[in-house]
Design goal:
With 424 residues, the protein is an alpha/beta fold. It has helices at 4-16, 71-81, 92-104, 117-132, 172-175, 186-195, 221-232, 251-256, 282-285, 304-314, 319-342, 368-371, 376-388, 409-422, and strands at 38-42, 45-48, 53-56, 110-114, 136-140, 153-154, 164-165, 178-181, 200-205, 235-240, 262-265, 276-280, 348-352, 355-359, 391-392, 401-402. The strands form 4 sheets. Strands 4-12-11-10-9-5-8 form a 7-stranded mixed sheet, with helices on both faces. Strands 1-2-3-15 form a 4-stranded mixed sheet. A 3-stranded antiparallel sheet has the order 13-14-16, covered by helices on one side. It is globular, with a radius of gyration of 21 Å. The two termini are 20 Å apart. It binds ligand KE4.
Length: 424
Amino acid sequence: MKRDVSGALFERAQRVIVAGVNSPVRAFRAVGGVPPFIARARGSRLFDEDGNEFIDYVGSWGPAILGHADPQVIAAVQSALTNGLSFGAPTALEVEFAELVTSMVPSIELMRCVSSGTEATMSAIRVARGFTGRDVLIKFEGCYHGHADHLLVKAGSGAATFGEPDSAGVPASVARLTLTLPYNDIGALERAFTDSPGVIAAVIVEPVVGNMGCVPPIAGFLEAIIALCKRDGAVSIFDEVMTGFRLSRAGAQGHYGLHPDLTALGKIAGGGMPLAIYGGRRDIMSKVAPLGPVYQAGTLSGNPSAVTAGLATLSRLDAALYAKLESLGARLEAGLTEAAAKANAELCVQRVGSMLTPFFTRGPVRNWNDSAKQDKERFVRFHRSLLEQGIYWPASQYEAAFISVAHSEADIDRTVAAAAEALK
Ligand code: KE4
């Protein structure tokens, strides 16, 4: 596959942009090689600067649920742009958008728009701390919630000790306020509340994890988070930046029939434009300035073109779309599983709806320790072979792949055939 133009661009990029990319995973460090520089995208396809065409399973890391450059979304945004890019003032569009989001996700009574998933989770945690007057945060190993300091924390050396920084630049004093527990470990969560009653401000969780690969919750895990928070007066926060609108019109909470206290949304919410949301219980969100003492602000929050892209995207999410995504997801899962069996390859495919991950390890994968056992080299060979065959797969074994409603059964079947070749 010709990669000259991308190679030259990568050289230039690395001289002026950190590692040549504006977000680390794009640098292909986990899989090696030159990342294709994408020129344009349409439907299920990406086209790079060398003219190569790919079937895309990254979907901009989740937003492209309708497929790329959906004509209706593009037309709506083009029209909005002619009215001006940003006013820094309230608009009717934001009201329409917030009314749509709160009608789709019933646990959200009051919300705020921000510009990234990081801002959404960071703000949700701040309002939970302001509402409870408490400082301690619980998160789970393998879950990623954006790059705010208190979320770049790994489990401390002892089981119950508080966190240690998981990135340079994060003060130890900040990390110590974050307790990191194993995902899907109800007992560890119960013990955390028993050992530290009345000090936990919030528990934040990816209700279906995408950031250690696709790891679903075991029965009772999400319910335990909500119940234990309620009992102790802590705030339950579902980080649905990835799962929101992906798994149902009400995200994972709709899929599982649950009501967290607060929710963070992003990615699909803006249809690929910089737009994210945090919101939930009215009594909690009423603490946010200027109603209450918890400050949060943003120059471009809720800007008209991003909100227009969000409205045009969310308004298309109906039962028929989710039925098609489920059918395509099941077809890909079955095809990958069958290809692995024929190749006698140890592969565990985990999927919820249109997000899935093939784990090169014996399953099931229930938590970070399980996911970390993956055969990394096997994944690297798999990824490289798929790319050479025109399949653009997430460049890390710790990511979820996404299917859009623009994917066809022929796309899926071609991907399965490429995977069978990649597994040889
Ligand atoms: P952003 O700040 O990147 O918009 O959102 C952060 C975030 C928060 N919560 C969850 C569950 C997320 O998955 C993310 C971001 N996801 C990654 C991919 N796993 C974005 C890709 C990237 O970092 O370049």
